[in-house]
Amino acid sequence: MKVLVVDDIGYSCHYYARLVEKIGFTATTASSGFEALQILQMDNEVHVVLTDLVMSGMDGIDLFQKAQLVERYSDSGTVSPPQFILMTAVRPEKNSQDRNVQRLKLASELGFSKIMFKPLDQKELKQELDDMSLNVIHSSESEVSLDLYSPTQKVRESVREIVKADNKQAASEFLEVLLEEIANLKNYLKTS
C-alpha cells in the first residue's frame, strides 16, 4: 500500500516518510497541499494520505476536501479517494477560539479516518495503516475493492464500548457472534 506523506517542513516530511517505510509500507512525499493534489491526480496507487494540519497555502483540511473531488481511474474503472490521516501538534485543550483548534474539530466532522498528535506514536500509526491496508485488498476474481476498514473499525469501537461499560454479558454475546463469523470464514476458506 502506498502512503503519501504531506508536510511543508522538509525534515518532518522526510522523517514521517521513513517511518511509514520502516513500518512496512511504500511512501512518497509532497511538500505542500498543491503538490499532493498533483500527485493524487497522476498516481492512483496512493491509498492513504498522511497530512499535517497546519501548512502554508493549503492546509490539511483544504487538501482533504479538494482530494475528494479528484477523479482517479485505473483499468478497472474509477478509483476511490484515498483515506486520510491528519497529524497535528495542535492540542484541542488550547483556546477553543483558536483557528487551528476549530480546523481540528472540522477534521473530525469531515471524515478523516484518524487524527494523530505529533510526535506520532509508531505503534498507533502501524496499527492504523495495517487496518487501512485491509481496505486495499481486492477480490482475485472480480478486482472489486472491498471495504474491510470500516467494519473493522466498528468492531474495535464496539469492543472498546463494551469494556468501558464493564458489561460482561455483552462481552460474552459479542464474542459468541464473532466466533460464529470466524467459523463461517473458516468454512468458506475450506471450500475455496
TrEMBL record:
Residues 2-133 form the Response regulatory domain. GO terms for biological process: phosphorelay signal transduction system. The keyword Phosphoprotein applies. SMART domains: REC. Keywords: Phosphoprotein. Pfam families: Response_reg. The modification 4-aspartylphosphate is found at residue 52. This is Response regulator PleD. It comes from Gimesia fumaroli.
